[in-house]
Design a protein that fits this description.
Elements (H helix, E strand, L loop, with lengths): L6 H5 L2 H10 L12 H4 L3 H12 L25 H10 L6 E2 L4 H7 L9 H23 L2 H6 L6 H26 L20 H15 L19 H13 L1 H5 L4 H12 L17 H4 L5 E5 L11 H7 L4 H10 L16 E2 L3 H5 L27 E3 L14 E3 L29 E5 H15 L3 E2 L2 H13 L8 E2 H11 L6 H8 L15 H6 L10
Antiparallel strand pairs: 1-3, 2-6, 4-5, 7-8
Helix pairs in contact: 4-9, 5-7, 7-9, 9-10, 10-11, 11-13, 13-18, 18-19, 18-20
Length: 540
């Protein structure tokens, strides 16, 4: 498999892109590939092309989970979702990573520069390559192409596939807009054509908004809720992305859109979703079966046998556990067949103790000789799936003490913990827990925060407060009758711990970094070297 070192070849250099796609045996193929027409032999072939785009958030190649198609020594570090979470959570007070990788330390300490690092490379390159895959898919699925192939009978189904692919392209561009601000805008015409021009963040917001609103029109082929199987996106995923964009619109464009954020959050809320009664089950091995029908709006699917990755929820689980913590949590959860809840113990991801004080997390009295967790979660905030092995003032390092997060485990909802089977494969070490990009509580928080913003920073609206009360009731907590923006986001920090939400929230609160240039990351210098149309972001 050809290693990709340059973002330009990923997106634009057609011969290289075709070679990469052919080596991966990936649909869609290109006109310049002699087997491209053979690739689209029936409707299932078009669905296979869409499936690869849908999986691009967590796939590192089509060879194996340990073999990246990017030039990374550690394939898991090249995964889009893993590094997207790193870029959103690690620079906040919610997470520390004890490994000494330079890119980790730079992001943790806010000392990154314009030099490319692993997180920047993985997220930027994966998003741009995902965009290229969608652009090529849209070129290969036009009405003209269908007619030339004699596939007009598939026209309605393909129209739906195209709408779903367009949503994924919007997701990739949203990530770029949020993290990098001013990326190149590559569209279908750039495949084999001119280098894409750079687009300003505010203009990209407008472009994205139109793309998403078009998917919501009555004549749009974007499927409604229930029309496609989980985890494919539907119109509610489109609305959820719009709600998140509108919540942050003032940061992106300079103009607040609180009413629009409320509107689209409410439309999602009112479309038949409900809170899953057990918070812990949202992050278990079988959450795609137990939670998808109530709380998940759009999720990335992981499967230890069919959708393998050393990134994503495998990292969120394995990265947090040490041997001692594994035994403590297994004992607390009543696991008897094995003495762990995570088969891998990478001993690196930690909870910064400042998180607990800054976000008013409710902890009962510390009791080191009690259940082993260091506190009683049933008398505390039940969402705090954490433990402390002896040092409440712990700062991350490779050690066995300090606050840890056991939010993701290899346990099923029936209590079974996965263990080695009869073969020598590592499948049993990988996670099958799905990662929800959008779940219902975010819509509750968006509605409540937007209402507070519209009313001087505080809301006592019965609907807004009621949404937060529902979340806190599930956590075993009481709720005030009036909530400030700060109240809402402190609660959200616990609900969404290590789910990639905190950086945006800190930016809206104005507490992320005093240097506002650091509210976005630098454009890859390797991309700038390849594309003379790109200027570096301010401050870099």
């Amino acid at each position: 498999m050809k290693k990709i070192n340059n973002i330009l070849v990923t997106v634009l250099a057609l011969a290289t892109l075709v070679s990469c796609i052919k080596d991966l045996n990936t649909l869609p193929l290109n006109d310049y590939d002699t087997t491209s027409e053979d690739a689209y032999v029936d409707q299932a072939s078009y669905l296979s092309g869409l499936a690869y785009i849908n999986a691009y958030y967590n796939f590192v190649s089509q060879n194996s989970a340990g073999n990246s198609d990017l030039s990374f020594d550690d394939a898991g570090q090249s995964e889009l979702l893993r590094q997207w979470m790193v870029m959103n959570d690690l620079p906040t007070k919610s997470q520390d990573i004890g490994w000494g990788d330079s890119y980790i330390m730079d992001i943790t300490n806010h000392t990154w520069t314009n030099a490319d690092n692993n997180a920047f490379i993985a997220v930027y390159t994966r998003c741009m390559k995902g965009i290229a895959l969608v652009n090529e898919y849209l070129l290969q699925t036009t009405d003209q192409k269908l007619e030339l192939r004699g596939h007009t009978d598939f026209k309605d189904a393909i129209a739906q596939y195209r709408a779903e692919a367009t949503f994924h392209r919007a997701m990739f561009y949203y990530i770029l807009m949020d993290l990098f601000g001013n990326p190149p805008l590559a569209l279908e015409e750039n495949i084999g054509g001119e280098l894409p021009k750079q687009i300003k963040r505010a203009d990209l917001f407008v472009w994205l908004e139109k793309q998403l609103l078009d998917l919501l029109k009555e004549d749009s082929a974007m499927p409604a809720k229930g029309a496609v199987p989980y985890p494919r996106p539907n119109k509610d995923a489109v609305k959820a992305l719009l709600a998140r964009m509108y919540l942050n619109a003032e940061i992106y464009t300079g103009t607040a859109r609180w009413e629009d954020a409320k509107q689209y959050a409410k439309e999602v809320i009112d479309n038949g979703y409900s809170l899953h009664p057990n918070y812990r089950e949202l992050f278990l091995y079988d959450n795609g079966q137990t939670c998808a029908n109530d709380e998940f709006i759009f999720a990335i699917e992981y499967d230890a046998e069919k959708a393998q990755s050393w990134g994503g929820t495998t990292t969120l689980c394995s990265g947090a556990f040490s041997d001692e913590m594994n035994e403590i949590v297994a004992k607390y959860l009543g696991v008897t067949e094995v003495n762990y809840v995570s088969p891998e113990k990478w001993n690196g991801y930690h909870l910064n103790p400042e998180f607990l004080t800054e976000n008013d997390a409710v902890l009962s009295d510390v009791n080191w000789d009690g259940n082993g967790l260091g506190f009683d979660p049933e008398k505390s905030d039940r969402r705090l799936l954490i433990c402390n092995q002896g040092d409440p003032n712990y700062k991350a390092s490779i050690s066995t003490s300090g606050w840890r997060v056991w939010k993701w485990t290899s346990m099923r909802s029936d209590g079974y913990v996965y263990k080695r089977g009869g073969d020598d494969s590592d499948d049993w070490k990988l996670s099958s827990a799905d990662f929800a990009i959008f779940r219902l509580p975010e819509m509750y928080y968006i509605y409540a925060e937007s209402d507070a913003r519209l009313h001087g920073g505080t809301t006592s609206d019965a609907t807004a407060v009621g949404y937060i009360r529902a979340l806190r009731n599930r956590a075993g907590l009481t709720t005030k009758a009036s909530l400030s923006v700060e109240d809402i986001l402190k609660d959200k920090a616990v609900e969404y711990l290590w789910e990639g939400q905190r950086r945006q929230d800190e930016i809206r609160l104005g507490i992320f970094d005093s240097d506002k240039n650091r509210w976005i990351y630098p454009i890859l210098e390797s991309d700038r070297a390849a594309n003379g149309n790109l200027e570096q972001n301010p401050g870099y």
